[in-house]
Amino acid sequence: MSTKISCSCGYTGPVGHAGQTPVCPLCRQQIAEPAAEKRWQIPCPNGHVFKAPESWMGRRMICPQCNEPFVPKLSDSLEERAEQRRREEAADAKLAKVWLTRAIWAAVLVVGFLSSLVVLSLMK
Hints:
Elements: E1 4-6, E2 12-14, E3 16-18, E4 21-23, E5 39-43, E6 49-53, E7 61-62, E8 69-70, H1 78-123
Antiparallel strand pairs: 1-2, 3-4, 5-6, 7-8
C-alpha cells in the first residue's frame, strides 16, 4: 500500500521514490514522510466502534460491521466524549466545593448567632 501525499505543486496521490527518498512524482520535489494521521474511535448508530482518521469526519460512511450508513463526527468520538465527561466532572467538583464552602460559612454564622443569643440571655 503506497502512502498518499499532498505536494506544494498541487499533486495529491501516491508518493514516488527516488532511491530511498520519497519524492513527488510530478515535480520530483523531495517530500518529508507524512505524519500518521490521528485515528479516532467512532461508534456507528448501532454501537459498533471502529477507528477512523480525522479526514473521514463529515463524510458519509458505512459501518464495516453492520453496513449502517452514517456521517461520523469528531464530537461523537469516544475520545471526545471522555474529554467532555472529564470537563463536566471537573465543573461539578468545582461547584460542589463552592457549595460546601457556603454551607460551612452558613453553619459558622448560625452557631455564632446562637452563641451570642446564649451569652446575651445569661447577661440579664
